[in-house]
Amino acid sequence: MTGILETFLSEPIKHCFNLVQKPEYFTYHRLVTQLRFKPRYSPFSVHLHGWRLYLPDTASFLSTYKAIFLDQIYAFAFEGNSPRILDLGANVGLSVLFFKRIYPKAKISAFEPDPVIFSYLERNIRGNGYEDVELFKKAAWIEDAQLQFKSDGADAGHLVSEGKTGNVQVEAIDLDGFLRERYFDFIKMDIEGAEKVVLPACRQHLEYLRYLFVEFHSCLEEEQGLADIINLLAESGFRFSLQRVWGSSTPLLRQEVNRNGFDSQVNIHAWRERKQLFIKSS
Q: For residue range 36-89, what is the model confidence (pLDDT) as tens digits?
């Protein structure tokens, strides 16, 4: 009973301590309080960290803000102040703003295929004075093409499988070809299932890469593909860490599927030591 009472009392104390000692924790909970009654898919704006942000959906904004700014899932160590970053699946731009906040001189190329969401990305980046960020209204893919895309009006838009129809057509770029002409220190890949096709096609460029973040999605109707990605990273000399984000808590008993048909999501952080890094010749 004493242990239960201590746990019951310690959580409010811990919460109050974090509110005082951790600015991002305070900001996140302030946003939750401010936006808790706002309906989903209702555009709004907030003033945050000196930025004016325009956003299409409260739930996706709060979850993304927590992951990026509070949990810092994209944080990485860099010796200089101008890392070269490729942001695949930039959504409304929170990831780009996080990178710029940490490394103001970062050289960023950001891709977002959803035309509606891209308009938010462009407004949030250009409107807050970041003219040096490259913005591409394109999907990362294995060839230059026009592809079917399923837009959900928030952060879960994705390319649809061959033979299926989306609600918008988007332009896709051959990422392998793009990387032949560019060099990046860090690649963030959040492309809602397409990573299982796109990442292996870029195998030859991984030896020049210091850091990689992949948001892996498992689709119940398809081969899982996680082992293939892990093997690819190991063969390319990366160390890596897996972080379960979403999925059934009892997968041996039952599977749970979200609205896009994914039964699990795993964040993969991959890195290599500086001494293992090859430098691409210009």
A: 999 999 999 999 999 999 999 999 999 999 999 999 999 999 998 899 999 999
Strands 107-111 and 134-136, by their bridges, are: parallel
pLDDT score of 261: 75
What are the chain's domains?
Answer: 57-276 (3.40.50.150)
Q: Rounded to the nearest 10 degrees, what angle do helices 94-102 and 115-126 cross at?
A: 30
Q: Which residue has the higher pLDDT, 218 or 52?
A: 52
Distance CA 90, CA 237 (A): 26
pTM over 0.85, yes/no:
yes
Contact 98, 190 (CB under 8 A): no
